[in-house]
Design brief:
By secondary structure, this protein is mainly alpha-helical. It has one domain (8-83). 45% of the residues lie in helices and 11% in strands. It has four helices and three strands. The chain has helices at residues 8-12, 22-31, 42-59, 83-90; strands at residues 19-20, 68-70, 78-82. It has a three-stranded antiparallel sheet. A hairpin with a 7-residue loop joins strand 2 and strand 3 (78-82). Helix 2 (22-31) runs antiparallel to helix 3 (42-59). The longest helix is centred in the middle third of the chain and has 18 residues, at 42-59. The radius of gyration is 13 Å and the shape is globular. The two termini are 16 Å apart.
């Protein structure tokens, strides 16, 4: 039996034409209140999303250079991938 994917609802809500990095997916989840794990601090949940999405992009051979670069204030640019790529691989 296949294990249900924990972040299915989150990935389903991504815009297909927007580029997301693991960090911006975590920020998206916070902004849209998509994290609802009982008994776990919200910042901890966001950190888990970021780590899980980073691992996921590596395991599914997303291009190392990304589809485009993602810019987060105070950080160096990071590769990101379109929402459609996340959806195709995850859902």
């Amino acid at each position: 039996m296949r294990r249900p994917k924990k972040y299915k609802n989150l990935i389903r809500n991504l815009d297909e034409d927007v580029v997301y990095s693991p960090a911006t997916i975590a920020a998206f989840a916070l902004e849209h209140e998509l994290l609802k794990e009982e008994g776990v601090e919200i910042k901890k949940q966001a950190q888990r999303v970021r780590i899980a999405m980073g691992n996921f992009s590596n395991q599914h051979d997303f291009p190392d250079q990304g589809d485009d670069m993602v810019y987060i204030r105070g950080q160096s640019p990071k590769p990101g991938w379109y929402g459609w790529r996340w959806k195709n691989a995850y859902l």
